[in-house]
């Protein structure tokens, strides 16, 4: 299969760590890599087994986060 390398980092918004969310990287033709963002903004990507990383290459990526605005209201 394709080569998978370790990938980790920090997500910042306006210079401050994103307190929670998900980082997703989508290689064409292979399973996506996903990492949960911790309270300090840090994440580690997983493709096949915990913390193994992502397929080598240039791929589309997204950071998904939700902010609670009140009961029954949230902002993506």
Tell me what you see in this structure.
It contains no helices and eleven strands. With 76 residues, it is mainly beta. The protein is elongated and about 45 Å long.
Overall pLDDT confidence? 93
Q: Strand tally, please?
A: 11
Helix content: under 10%
Task: Report the end-to-end length measured between terminal Cα atoms.
Answer: 35 Å
Q: Helix and strand string, N-terminal first?
A: EEEEEEEEEEE
The percent range for strand residues is: over 45%
Outline type: elongated
- Report on the biggest sheet: 3 strands, antiparallel
| Rounded radius of gyration (Å) | 14 Å
Q: Looking across the biggest beta sheet, what order are the strands in?
A: 6-5-9
Question: How many helical stretches?
Answer: 0
Structural class: mainly beta
Which residues sit in consecutive blocks of at least 5 with pLDDT less than 50?
A: none
Short synopsis of the structure:
The protein is 0% helix and 46% strand. The model has no long low-confidence stretch (mean pLDDT 93). It contains no helices and 11 strands.
């Amino acid at each position: 299969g394709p080569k998978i390398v370790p990938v980790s980092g920090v997500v910042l918004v306006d210079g401050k760590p994103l307190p929670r969310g998900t980082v997703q990287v989508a290689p064409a033709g292979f399973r996506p890599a996903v990492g949960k963002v911790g309270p300090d903004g840090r994440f580690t990507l997983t493709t096949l087994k915990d913390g193994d990383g992502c397929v080598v290459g240039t791929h589309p990526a997204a950071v998904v986060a939700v902010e609670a605005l009140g009961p029954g209201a949230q902002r993506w």
